[in-house]
Each structure stands twice: as structure tokens, then as C-alpha cells.
Amino acid sequence: MRGLSSSTNLRLRRRPVIALALLITCLIAPGLAAQNTPILSGGTVFFSNTRGGKTTYQMVANPLIAVPVGPHLFFEGRGVLVETLSPASTGGYNTSRFFGLSYMQADVIANKHVTAVGGLFLTPFGTYNERLTPLWIGNFQDAPLIYGIGNMNFGTGLGGMLRGNAFSTDKVSVSYAAYVSAGSTNVRVRTQRSTGGQANVYFPKARLEVGASFGRRLETVRENNFGTHVWWQPIKVPIVIRSEYAHAPNSQGYWIEADYRLPQFRDAKWLARLEPIARVEQAFRNAPDRTDGLPSLDTQKAAFGLNYHFPHEVRINATYGRQFATGGNVNIWQTGLIYRFLTPTWKGK
Amino acid sequence: MNIYRYIFPGVALMVALPLFSQATNTVAGPKPAVHQTTQPQSAAGTKQRDGNEVFAANCSRCHNAPESFSPRISGTIVRHMRVRASLSKEDEEALLRFLNP
Q: Which of B6, B71, B84 sits opposite A302 (nearest CB)?
């Protein structure tokens, strides 16, 4: 395009982008039933975290976009924007910013049992990474101590995954996921070469779920990770009990978490907006290993706190925890103000 | 310091609270807006899953329901949940009927 003016050159370069946008619009439009408008969802939070007397502040946004295209295709992605103020050794605060992708995937619903996923996806190991990492869902700011096991350090994979519901009746439901991932060192998209999978069995009558996970790291250090989880949500009591155990060659550990939505008393309806939460966890180190993401020493942690749910999807959260480790114990005080949003991407009838 | 000092009171608290709520015979916490939608009648002779049950069993395992949302996005939300929670096709359809009767 040498010889053209810069404005003409720019217009020509934009044409493929405009054509692509038109093509996507044409693809999406026929598939948009009245209920299938793309959504913009996510959460924004303000966190404070006082650990051993030093307080760190974080502002985090977690936008999610989901776009259905026809009956079988679905695009979804979640980003993360973080601004951190942490105490500097010389006094005052240091600030740092980060923007990255949690996932950005295309889902092809092939049939009633199989969904093919391609792109950047959350690693299906255990339950925490896929289910509890959204800011508007998680009860605690900190991930469990054993989060690094099976989630390949970053919690994301870049490649392909098959998942779905293998078998489902009123009494039992069996679901599965299996993936392969390439490695990426891009600062916004960090993944490790790995493979793995998961199988879950859920008993709806008892509201009991048990599952097992497997992950194999295929980077320089090749190792297998195993995990299992049990979740129980009693029918008569509004409590959810979640637990997970994970094992790596040089470490292992577990966590148990519970949250309980208080009942609504006649003259104190505000009480029903309170949600006591608790988590107990332990991580054990068998041998030094920098690759599994667990603490370098045996560590135990207990934390409890309260969620209070305001109207309009606002929640405040306060927790106290104590961490016990061979290297020293520490108190952890955390507070959070969380707002969740969920809206169509454009207006309609 | 021993972590077991904290485990026992924590477990005792989590056990006592549900028992206390049962004993006081009160209503459970506020129901989300989606629970207030009317349940459509099942077509005669067809075996349809109960959307309310599907919602309680699958969605509220991980999160509280949004207070409200536009009916225009219910299909997108259910599709998202089908992939994320590996719902069966039957459960997806029951959930969509429940959210958008």
C-alpha cells in the first residue's frame, strides 16, 4: 500500500476488521432468541488484608462476557484487573497494576454428552479453580494452601478440553472433563504444558457430590497430581460443606469450608442476610519443591468470618484467620466490599 | 498454639447453628427472585425435571442466585451454566423453563 495517504491506508487496514465484525454480527443475529442476549457480568471488589500487622489493599475488577451463537456455539471470557497498594519497606505504599485473562474460550456443544472447549480455559482440577474463583462467589480472599496442586501454578490451560454430562437421572449424575494444554510464558496468558481430567458423581437426593481429579505436568519436571473432593448441601439446612484433598509428589494437603445462611426470624429479617463462613486447611511438605506452589514448610490455617448480603448485589465480608507454620505463626484479618453486576450487553424489547 | 483448639469450636459452631435453626422452626433465608417465578405445568405424559430442584441442586451449590435479571439473558445464563457446571441437556431445559416460565 505504498504511495497511499496515511488516512486511506488506515481505512483499508480497518476493512478486514469491519468485515469480521459484520460477519460475527450476521452469525450471532439469527441465533439470538429472546432469551439469548449476550451478557456482561462480573464483580468489582475492594479488599484489605492485614497479615502480621502489615496491611495491603487491593481493588479488583473481574468482568465476564458470554456470547451465545446459535444453538451449539458459545463464547465466554473473563478478565482480571488488579491494583495493589502494599506497604513499602521505606514507609508509605507501593502501587502495582496487573491486567490478565482468567479464561477466553469457545464452547461447541456437540451433543447432549459432549462439549468441546478450545482456547484459554480454567484447569479442571478439584473444585476451587473452576467454581469458587469468581470474586462474587468466593467466601475467602485467599485461595486454599493446596491450590497449586493440579492447577499447574496458574489455574489455566491453553488448548482443548472435552467435558460434559455422561449420565444423568433423578438419582445420580456423572460429569467429566479432560484436557490437554500447551505452555505459554506470555505475561497476560500464563500456562504450563500439562494434561489432566476430572470425574464427578452427584447424588441429587442427598445433595452429595464426590469427585476425583488427575493432572500431569509436562514441563521440565514431569509429575502427577491427584485430588479428590466431597461437597454436601443438606436439604433441610441452608449450609454448604465443601472439602478437597490433593496430593503431589512432594506435598499434599486438604481444606474444608462451610457457609451457613442464617434463618429469617420474624422480627429480624436482616439476620437472614448474614452468612457465617469458616475454613480449616493443612498443607504438608514432604520435600523441597518450588514448582508445586505450596508453602515451603508444613502450614496449618483456620479462618472464620461473616458475609452480609445487602440488596442490589452488594456484599461485605470480614474474616479472621490464624496461620500456623514452623517458621512462625501469623494473624490474618481481611475485609472486602464486593459488588456483582449482571446485565444484557444491549437494550432490547 | 495448636490448630485443633480452633477446629473444635468451629465444628461445634457449624453443627449447633443448623440445629438451632431447626429448633426455632423459622423460615429459611430470603429466597432469590428467580425462585419467585411460577413453575410451569408439566405437559401431560412427559417426564420433566423440576427446575426448582435443578436450581437448588446445581446452582446454589456454588453461589447465591442473583437478585434479579432480565429475562432476555436467561438463555445465555443457562448456557453458561450448562458448560461450567456440566449440566445435562434435560437439566438445562428444566432450568430454562424455571427461570423463564
A: B6
